[in-house]
Design brief:
Strand content: under 5%
Distance between the termini: 75 Å
CATH architecture: Up-down Bundle
Number of strands: 3
Oligomer: single chain
Order of helices and strands: HHEEHHHHHEHHHHH
Shape: globular
Protein name: Serpentine Receptor, class I
CATH topology: Rhopdopsin 7-helix transmembrane proteins
Structural class: mainly alpha
Transmembrane segments: 12-35, 47-64, 89-112, 132-151, 187-217, 238-264, 276-299
Organism: Caenorhabditis briggsae
InterPro entries: 7TM_GPCR_serpentine_rcpt_Sri
Number of helices: 12
Number of domains: 1
CATH superfamily: Rhodopsin 7-helix transmembrane proteins
Keywords: Membrane, Transmembrane, Transmembrane helix
């Protein structure tokens, strides 16, 4: 099996470009939520938190950690500045990235649930008590912490890694020594617990999303008879935007799915394949920012109005300059 212990130049360049573009797009989206979103209390808070999580996730992904796989060995290293210049262990960086991704998905699920309750309170149907909300907040906070703790336990001790490489992969012993900051994994009870938890969490979140979405569309029919057309349009636009954002979250999970497929199938020479999935996953904040802007009527109208005004000003200036030029 052939393993490259140097990152492909193209993916590092790609990460830096995506980081710069994503940061700009994320800042614009956050500002739109802060200044142009309708006053909806909890919903506005969680949709803002979700956009901030997107910005944080891509910065971790493309600058802070930059995870690089060493498949088919179940190992990897980080090229980001925290790993290279602060020597923070790759295992901790990857664990923090996974916990951040879980937190991000939780934010989106909460947005669905709170939008559901906003509609429910308007038509007085399927309203739940605040006790349920605060229990959800408790799970919302503790779940990423549990994920990080379990993932940290699932890894091999840092001081045992070199010996493990010497015993199992002696042909790569010198290459691993040159890395200095890497993480190796082997299956243990903590890995099994993490896998079961991930499957269970996916089932719970997926089921919650399906149930909430179906009920929202049922309630929208009743809502149309009780609110004005403009208010109904805002509710419908918000639900549509959330659905599109949920769809784009598939980009966020693509690298994880690719890792699982590679591990289960045992493919060799898969580093390029995994790097491509990492690159696609890094595009999530950009795609999400475009989706949020284009599917939320308040944001879309504001952006188009600004662009139209700017375009008119440029046209007017060019026209004035052309008229001011002397004619032969």
């Amino acid at each position: 099996m052939a393993i490259s212990f140097q990152p492909s130049p193209w993916i590092l360049i790609f990460f830096y470009i995506v980081a710069a573009i994503s940061l700009i797009f994320s800042i614009i989206t956050v500002l739109l939520v802060i200044f142009k979103h309708q006053k909806e209390g909890r919903y506005r808070f969680y949709i803002l938190l979700y956009q901030i999580c997107n910005a944080n996730s891509v910065l971790q992904y493309t600058l802070i950690s930059q995870p690089m796989p060493l498949f088919p060995i179940l190992a990897g290293y980080c090229e980001g500045f925290l790993a290279k210049y602060f020597n923070i262990w790759t295992h901790y960086l990857i664990g923090f990235q996974l916990a951040s991704m879980a937190f991000q998905v939780e934010c989106l699920i909460f947005c669905f649930a709170i939008k559901h309750q906003n509609i429910a309170r308007t038509i007085q149907h399927h309203v739940v008590s605040d006790d349920v909300y605060w229990f959800g907040v408790f799970l919302f906070i503790i779940t990423p912490l549990i994920i990080y703790f379990v993932f940290c336990q699932a890894g091999m001790e840092r001081e045992n890694q070199v010996e493990f490489v010497s015993n199992h992969y002696p042909e790569y012993y010198q290459e691993f020594l040159n890395l200095k900051n890497f993480a190796i994994y082997e299956f243990n009870y903590w890995c099994l617990f993490l896998a079961i938890g991930a499957c269970g969490g996916s089932i719970v979140c997926g089921s919650a999303f399906i149930i909430i979405t179906i009920d929202i569309f049922r309630m929208l029919k009743n809502l149309q008879r009780t609110v004005s057309a403009s208010n109904y349009q805002m509710y419908q636009s918000a639900v549509t935007s959330l659905l599109f954002q949920f769809a784009t979250s598939a980009l966020l999970l693509l690298p994880l799915v690719a890792f699982v497929v590679v591990v289960l199938t045992g493919w060799e020479n898969t580093q390029v394949f995994v790097e491509v999935t990492l690159a696609i996953g890094a595009l999530h904040p950009i795609v999400n920012a475009v989706v949020v802007t284009m599917t939320t009527s308040l944001y879309r109208e504001y952006i188009f109005r600004k662009l139209a005004r700017r375009g008119f000003r440029v046209f007017a200036v060019n026209l004035a300059q052309s008229n001011s030029q002397p004619r032969n």
